[in-house]
Amino acid sequence: MNQGELIQEVANEANLSKTQTQDAVRALLKTIMRVVADGDKITLVGFGSFESKRRAAREGRNPQTGETIQIPATRVPTFSAGKAFREAVNK
């Protein structure tokens, strides 16, 4: 499912216009990205949590040459599914 299909599904479920739903979904995604990028955590009870975690510097290999390279430390976004979400998926 892509973003357009998601917007259509939410619009049907919530009895909203596609334009209103599109604005709401885009605002939600933009807010999640901004908050996580600022280092905060978002928890939606039953659905899951969005946060950023630090990934330590590590050694890697260039797949073309086999040469060892240093991969710098970075922050990565993560999502942890909530209990209700996991149970729905495992039905």
What does this structure look like?
The protein has 91 residues and is α+β, with helices and mostly antiparallel strands. The protein folds into two domains: 1-38; 39-91, Irregular (HU Protein, Chain A), CATH 4.10.520. It has helices spanning 3-14, 18-37, 83-89, and strands at 42-44, 48-55, 58-61, 68-71, 74-81. The strands form two sheets. Strands 1-2-5 form a three-stranded antiparallel beta sheet. Strands 3-4 form a two-stranded antiparallel sheet. Helix 1 (3-14) crosses helix 2.
Helix count? 3
CATH superfamily of the largest domain: IHF-like DNA-binding proteins
The computed structural class is alpha+beta
Average pLDDT score: 95
- What is the H/E order? HHEEEEEH
C-alpha Rg (nearest Å): 18 Å
Tell me, what's the shape?
elongated
> Helicity range of the residues?
40-55%
Quick structural summary:
43% of the residues lie in helices and 30% in strands.
Label this structure with key terms.
single chain; 91 residues; alpha+beta; HU Protein, Chain A; 2 domains; three-stranded antiparallel beta sheet; two-stranded antiparallel sheet; 3 helices; elongated
